Please model this.
Amino acid sequence: MKKEIMERIEKVIAAGPFRDSWESLEAYKAPKWYVKGKFGIFIHWGLYSVPAFSNEWYPHNMYRKGSVEYEHHLAKWGAHDKFGYKDFIPLFKAEKFDPAAWADLFKESGARFVVPVAEHHDGFQLYKSVLSKWNAFEMGPKRNIIGELADKVRDRGLVFGASSHRAEHYWFMGFGRDIQSDVQDPAYSDFYGPAAKPIYGPSRDFENYATSSPDREYLEDWLARTCELIDLHKPQLLWFDWWIMNLSFKPYLRKLAAYYYNRAAEWGLEVAINYKFDAFPTGTAVFDIERGQQAGIRSLFWQNDTSVSKNSWGHIRNHDYKVPNDIICDLVDVVSKNGALLLNVGPRADGTIPEEEQSMLRGIGAWLKVNGEAIYDASYWKVFGEGPTKVAEGAFTDTSRGAFTSMDIRFTSKGDTLYASVLKWPEYDTVLIKSLAPSLGYHPKPIRSVELLGSKRTPDWKLEEKGLTVDLSACEPTKNAFVLRIT
Model:
């Protein structure tokens, strides 16, 4: 079957319009639904939701002697050769999984696209596959989870995507080589994969992108699996984690992108690939920053993926949850810099989304019902904003910034309308927007009106040399960020 898929890949690439070259792939354009939609939901759910300990890297670290996961596994589940990661499969029942309820919640959150993890680093697929029996349709829940969710998400008018972390599976179970474990049992080699041994210390072997390369068989399997996922579920967003940066993947990334973009052209769909760091050349796919943002406007559309939790993507029992308004402020900041926010939730093993996470999504949705016109379909402005709070640039900085203040303001626009999102209600009910000082020339047309979205009362305002001063004393204060519509 893999041979047939590989042959089909070559035929689709040969048929165009995209070829297997970076020059050809530079013709790619980000989808309109993506650039306009701005906000999506990411979902980390799988076997790692059963132990619900530490984070979604439990399968990697449970075999790592001396780690907290290793000790926890011994105490809770027993010896690694008697109860290995594969033994969580029967316990992953998803008995309360209701894709319609999930889709309703995501719609209520104000999200415009939904991206579940189809296969995480652990190698267990959440969809029916002809390339591996280790999937949720044949084992565990015995349901085609990705297919069921795709149908319900699309029924609600949302765009469906999927993520593949298959690349990292090459080394993910490697610590099982160091101890007496089921990873070394040939009976499960098709599940645990190569389990190339990662090295920890001054360097980590799997993070050396020029060496530690998978062989051709593994790379072809990665390509075949990814193209199978594309053909089965037609995701309009395809998200990859970082290890496709390994230089051995480069020829296969070209093939994958050409295949995906050509299939999308056949189907009449706009699609996008997410990549991190420099896995893809600029302009051939959509750049993604994990748990991090941009310090300023990026001319090419980009994405920030982050989680409702500070310490895990998948479900665990001791989450350190973020505050909903912090997520709202990050969404506003990202959009003001020409980006989109992909926000992750982690369902329990039974298929229920934790109540805290449901509440956070509904809170974001309620805010977007009032203020969404400053987010959806909006463009970045001449400057992204103003204020004293610095946003650190780069990956894994999502918890490093200080709290936003009432002087932190972010801008978006539509035609002659400017939206000024103020990230905290001012203590004395007055906002000064310095970027609108006439001498700066950012807003040369006369201001006709200033309105507070969601308020029946109109604030007083005046434009002076120091900027636009808005008096909100007649308006009801808000708990979260608020938006001024300036026409």
